[in-house]
Every structure is written in structure tokens, then in C-alpha cells.
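User: Reviewer 2 asked us to show a designed sequence for the structure in our supplementary figure. I'm pasting the C-alpha cells here. Could you produce the per-position amino acids so we can include them in the response letter?
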């Protein structure tokens, strides 16, 4: 038995979320998530990971800690909603900035704001942080927030677009940047850097120059008709003077953002603005901080994480590639832009941290079959010769119940389609496993990393083989893979899926007669499309799925992005690609799953799909989560999700009698 057999054991597995290296290179700090004692929620804590020792826990509070970063002196800054013991009747709990001394002792609160403190950066003795601020006088903000709450006012008056984002409402506050200097006990001389930015800093990504003199941040520019684009700007910390660094009417500039150690250049992502015939493209952009001049590097590698070498001559780039996320080294010092793959294993990397001497790169190492954990990469070698060592982890990796292999096929247009196949223990020609096809979301994404949601190894522990294909629009296969599916979601993706599923079911350890398809978000869209275009599956699970595209287009939180690819509501692509138009062809039993707090794919999609299935007398069930968003995150709801899915598959794929799970009884 493994932790994947019982979903309650699975949700209790601790998870390493981040990794940050100390200035002296002696230890890393990780934010670790684990189940709270009540079993109903998750909490977080900071753990130290010595580079040559065993991990140990740094913090313990019921409110948890996040966003850890080291000061130049080796202290640890983090955010937490824990109460400040030095303040009586502190009011509403919002995240504040705390400091844990490197020499030991209790953490102390060093900065707080009425709207909380979100992301922050520190360099030299400077700290820059983001906070939600109400319009009006700063001195009365806390009082005005309290008055609004006491009066029971939740209304938000909008004068622009958007109004929601993923799972939360925007407003009435707006994000602003503040700065201060680390003093003996508190952050001193705290002041605002960005008075009245409007919505320019919403979800901003930013970084500080090593001397703390300049903050480089994204800056959202509002355009007519609800559109926007994002520039990168530099703000002088001393004066608040802002100047535009990178701006292009055809591109957004955004995270990850990293200023070079010598303070002269900035690395970031440049994202092409899409249109009906212009597909998504993400590129590494490196520009001069003084002049704003820059160019694209490693153009076929989409940046997931960026870290500079200590001498500022190159950047390490983590990017999707053939179902993995290797680290690449992009040379900049000689102007060649030569790109070399550093890690030669099958793993995926994030949280890159270069040691000060340039010898090692520390990162979270993971993969489809490997939970994230800290690792050290010796950068003296590259590719297959690179020495990679897993460090002791504060959250040991669970052993997966099966084996992982790859499958590939040539599609009808000549493109190579590949994917991962997780096989349960014991699958063989004598005892072939039923197959579940997991269709990934995005759609500009791929199966290349560990998933705490959509966990294939839970299915494998229950005897299923799981195919995780990367069809058109998947990242890590070059721009052509995205281009071939742009504006052709259903038909082109369906053809790719059919081709690779045919390869999987031709194996003698797979039972071709017992198959199911599952997907969430874009994968849910494709699950709905598959339901209306083939009868090969015994069951289909559709989570957070798009159903009626014309309805979806105006209710999603990002209608402007959607319209770029599909055109105004009612245009030709809606009629061509909306799954609801094939309702009459659906014969396969379906399990519909949706959270009411999902603003990316609003609940109306599930309600319409559920009604359409009911009035068409398609055998179906609807698993509804009133308090979840695009993802199902609460431990108890995760249990209900998996138990319901497994029961549904057992009935229709394995031929067992339906048994309602206790978690939803």
C-alpha cells in the first residue's frame, strides 16, 4: 500500500513549494505546505535546508508563512498573517512582513499595511513591497476599511475592465509599491513609490537592482475597448521617478524578471499579443537597464524561470522541452547567445538559485514521476555529464506505485506527438490495465512536471494506466506545435489525441475495451469535444470545462484575451469550435465537475452543460463545489473529487455497481 491508495493519505503528503539560497551559500530556505491538525486545511512553514546537512524547521505558527527571502546580512524576511504580539487589538488579520534573525531568536514584525503586504524584494538595506490600497487619504485608510466592513458594504464600482481574476474580485483597492530601509527593529522611512497607479500594478512582477536603487516592474497600460498591454518600467527608489524600459505595441513584457548581479541588464519574458492568425509566443528578452535596448535570446524556449550567473555573463533558463523542463545556459557576455542544455536528466526544474562562486545551481527538481525536492547541479559540466545531487528534503518524496514510459506517434500532418504513460504495477499482456486519458489544460502547456492536482499516480494505484499526451498547442516542441492548433482547438487536438491513443491501446498491457477520457479547463473543453465526436470511451470526466463558447466568451475573467484568438462573440470560430453544438451526438456517460468560485471558466458553463445533458437524457452526474475555484484545493474536497471520479470510472469502465462515495453521501 502507498499514500496513493487512500486519498486521505495522499492529501496529507507535505509539499515543498519554494527554494531560496542564503547569501553565504550555506543553506536554503523552503516554504513547505502540510495538512493542518484539523485535517480541513493546509498550513505553511519555513524550513532550513543546509547544503551539507539535514533540514530543520524554522517557524511554527497557526497562520503559516510564505514568500521567504534573505537579506544581504542573512536574515530571513517572510510574509504571514500571524498576530503581532507587541500590538494590542491589531484589527483585521492581513499579511505583514516579518524578519527572522540569522543568529536565532523570535521573528518580529517589521512592516504592516491596512491592505496587507503581498510580494516583496530586498537588496542592500532596501525593501520594496506591494500592497492593496484604497483610493483617498492614506492616513484614514484603516478607518475607512473598518467603516466599510462595519456597514456591511461589499459593493465595488468599476469603471474599467477586467473586474475579476481567476478566483477573486478586483477592487475596491489597487496595488501600489512601497519602499523602506531595514532598521534595528522595523522597516524605517516607509513611503509610497507609485502614487495613483490605477490598475497598472495589478498582479505586478518586479525585481530590485543589487544596490537597491532601482525597482524594475511590470506596468499595465489600459487600451480602448477593454484591452491592455504590459510594459516594463524602472522606478528610482530615491525619487519615485518612473521611466519605460521595454514597450512594444505587439508584445507584453512580464515575469519572470531578474536584474543581473552587476545591475546593468534585465532578463524577462516577452509575450506576443495574439490575434486570429497570430499565435501565442513567449521568449526570453534581455535588455540594457540604462538604454532600454534589448533582444530575444533562445527564441524557441519559453521562460519558466530565469537566474543570472554571478558574473552576469549568462542566464540560466528553465524551459519546457519534450515533456521535461531542463535548465539551459544562455551566453550573453560575448554576444553569441549560445544556448547549452545544462541538466541532462528527465527532470523538471524551478526555483533556480546560483551560488555566489558560480560552481553550483540549486533548484527544485521534480518530474511527472518525482515530487519536488531540493537539488544541486554542478555547473562545471553540462548535459549528460552534469552531476546532479538530490539534497535531503523537508518533505521526502513519496514512492510512486508504478512505472513511467514514453509513447509517440506521427500525426496525419507529419508532426510528432508524444506523451507520458503511467503504468500500474502488474500491468501485462496477461493482465492488461484499463486506460484513462488525461488531457492537459492551458492549452499552451504540457505534461512535464509533478501534479498535486490531476495526479496520475492515484489512478495507477487503483489499477489504471494513465496516458498524458501533449497534442497541438503544447509547449516544449517548438513554435510550430502551437501554430498548428491555433484557432483550431477541437478538430486538430482531437486528431492528435486519436493518433496517440491508438498507439497506447495497441500495447498488450493496455485493455483497449476499457478506456476513459478526463480533462480540466482546456482539457475539459476537449473532454466535451471528445464526448460529441467519438464513442470510443466508456466514461468522460469534464472539470471546469468550456461548453458554450459564445456564452463563455463574455463571462470569463479575461474576455479580451479570448477575443484575440476567437474574434467577437458570434463569429465563425464559435460556430466551428463550440462543443455544445454536438450535444445530440453525445452517448458517453459524463461526470461534470465545477467550482462556483471559478472566474476563469464561470460556473454558467457547467450549469448549461448539466441542463443540456439532462434534457438530452445523457447518463451523467454533476459534482459541484460551492466554495472552490478553478482548482479544488481544500483537503476534504480533494478527497470528494477523487473518490467520486474513481467511483464513476469503476461503474462505467470496470463494470462495477455504482456506489456513492461516503465523502459526498
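Assistant: Here is a per-position design you can include in the supplement:
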Amino acid at each position: 500500500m502507498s499514500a496513493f491508495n487512500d486519498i486521505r493519505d495522499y492529501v496529507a503528503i507535505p509539499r515543498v513549494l519554494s527554494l531560496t539560497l542564503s547569501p553565504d551559500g550555506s543553506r536554503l530556505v523552503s516554504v513547505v505546505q502540510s495538512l493542518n491538525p484539523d485535517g480541513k486545511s493546509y498550513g505553511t512553514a519555513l524550513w532550513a535546508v543546509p547544503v551539507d546537512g539535514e533540514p530543520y524547521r524554522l517557524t511554527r505558527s497557526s497562520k503559516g508563512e510564505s514568500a521567504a527571502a534573505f537579506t544581504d546580512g542573512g536574515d530571513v524576511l517572510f510574509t504571514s498573517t500571524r498576530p503581532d504580539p507587541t500590538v494590542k487589538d491589531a484589527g483585521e488579520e492581513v499579511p505583514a512582513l516579518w524578519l527572522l534573525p540569522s543568529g536565532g531568536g523570535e521573528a518580529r514584525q517589521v512592516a504592516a499595511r491596512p491592505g496587507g503586504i503581498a510580494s516583496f524584494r530586498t537588496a542592500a538595506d532596501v525593501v520594496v513591497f506591494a500592497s492593496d490600497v484604497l483610493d483617498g487619504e492614506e492616513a484614514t485608510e484603516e478607518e475607512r476599511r473598518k467603516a466599510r466592513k462595519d456597514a456591511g458594504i461589499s459593493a465595488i464600482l468599476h469603471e474599467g475592465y477586467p473586474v475579476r481574476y481567476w478566483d477573486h474580485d478586483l477592487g475596491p483597492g489597487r496595488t501600489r509599491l512601497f519602499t523602506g530601509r531595514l532598521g534595528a527593529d522595523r522597516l524605517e522611512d516607509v513611503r509610497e513609490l507609485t502614487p495613483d497607479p490605477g490598475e497598472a500594478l495589478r498582479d505586478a512582477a518586479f525585481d530590485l537592482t543589487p544596490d537597491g536603487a532601482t525597482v524594475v516592474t511590470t506596468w499595465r497600460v489600459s487600451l480602448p475597448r477593454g484591452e491592455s498591454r504590459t510594459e516594463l518600467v524602472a522606478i528610482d527608489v530615491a525619487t519615485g521617478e518612473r521611466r519605460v524600459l521595454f514597450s512594444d505595441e505587439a508584445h507584453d513584457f512580464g515575469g519572470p524578471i531578474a536584474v543581473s548581479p552587476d545591475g546593468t541588464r534585465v532578463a524577462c519574458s516577452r509575450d506576443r499579443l495574439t490575434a486570429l492568425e497570430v499565435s501565442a509566443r513567449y521568449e526570453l528578452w534581455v535588455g540594457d537597464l540604462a538604454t532600454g535596448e534589448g533582444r530575444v535570446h533562445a527564441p524557441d524556449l519559453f521562460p519558466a524561470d530565469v537566474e543570472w550567473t554571478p558574473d552576469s555573463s549568462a542566464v540560466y533558463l528553465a524551459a519546457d522541452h519534450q515533456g521535461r523542463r531542463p535548465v539551459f545556459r544562455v551566453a550573453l557576455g560575448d554576444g553569441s547567445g549560445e544556448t547549452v542544455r545544462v541538466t541532462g536528466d528527465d527532470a523538471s526544474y524551478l526555483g533556480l538559485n546560483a551560488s555566489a562562486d558560480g560552481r553550483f545551481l540549486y533548484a527544485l527538481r521534480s518530474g511527472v514521476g518525482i515530487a519536488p525536492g531540493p537539488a544541486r547541479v554542478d555547473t562545471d559540466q553540462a548535459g549528460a555529464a552534469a552531476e546532479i545531487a538530490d539534497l535531503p528534503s523537508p518533505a521526502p518524496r513519496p514512492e510512486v506505485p508504478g512505472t513511467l514510459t514514453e509513447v509517440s506517434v506521427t500525426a496525419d500532418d507529419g508532426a510528432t506527438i508524444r506523451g507520458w504513460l503511467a503504468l500500474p504495477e502488474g500491468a501485462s499482456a496477461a493482465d492488461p490495465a484499463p486506460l484513462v486519458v488525461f488531457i492537459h489544460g492551458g492549452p499552451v502547456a504540457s505534461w512535464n512536471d509533478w501534479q498535486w492536482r490531476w495526479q496520475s499516480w492515484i489512478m495507477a494505484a487503483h489499477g489504471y494506466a494513465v496516458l498524458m499526451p501533449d497534442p497541438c498547442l503544447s509547449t516544449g516542441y517548438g513554435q510550430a506545435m502551437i501554430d498548428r492548433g491555433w484557432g483550431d482547438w477541437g478538430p486538430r487536438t482531437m486528431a492528435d489525441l486519436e493518433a496517440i491513443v491508438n498507439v497506447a491501446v495497441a500495447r498488450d498491457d493496455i485493455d483497449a475495451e476499457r478506456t476513459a477520457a478526463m480533462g480540466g479547463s482546456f482539457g475539459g473543453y476537449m473532454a466535451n469535444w471528445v464526448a460529441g465526436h467519438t464513442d470510443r470511451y466508456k466514461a468522460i470526466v469534464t472539470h471546469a470545462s468550456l461548453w458554450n463558447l459564445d456564452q463563455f466568451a463574455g463571462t470569463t475573467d479575461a474576455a479580451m484575451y479570448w477575443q484575440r484568438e476567437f474574434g467577437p462573440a458570434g463569429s465563425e470560430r464559435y460556430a466551428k469550435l463550440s462543443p455544445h453544438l454536438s450535444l445530440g451526438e453525445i452517448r458517453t456517460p459524463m461526470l461534470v465537475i465545477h467550482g462556483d468560485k471559478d472566474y476563469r471558466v464561470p460556473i454558467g458553463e457547467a450549469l448549461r452543460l448539466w441542463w443540456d445533458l439532462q434534457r438530452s437524457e445523457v447518463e451523467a452526474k454533476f459534482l459541484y463545489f460551492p466554495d472552490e475555484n478553478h482548482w479544488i484545493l481544500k483537503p476534504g474536497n480533494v478527497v470528494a473529487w477523487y473518490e467520486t471520479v474513481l467511483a464513476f470510472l469503476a461503474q462505467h469502465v470496470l463494470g462495477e455497481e455504482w456506489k456513492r462515495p461516503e465523502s459526498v453521501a
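For the response letter, you might also mention the following. Residues 409-655 form a domain with the Rossmann fold fold (CATH 3.40.50.1820). The longest strand covers residues 510-520.
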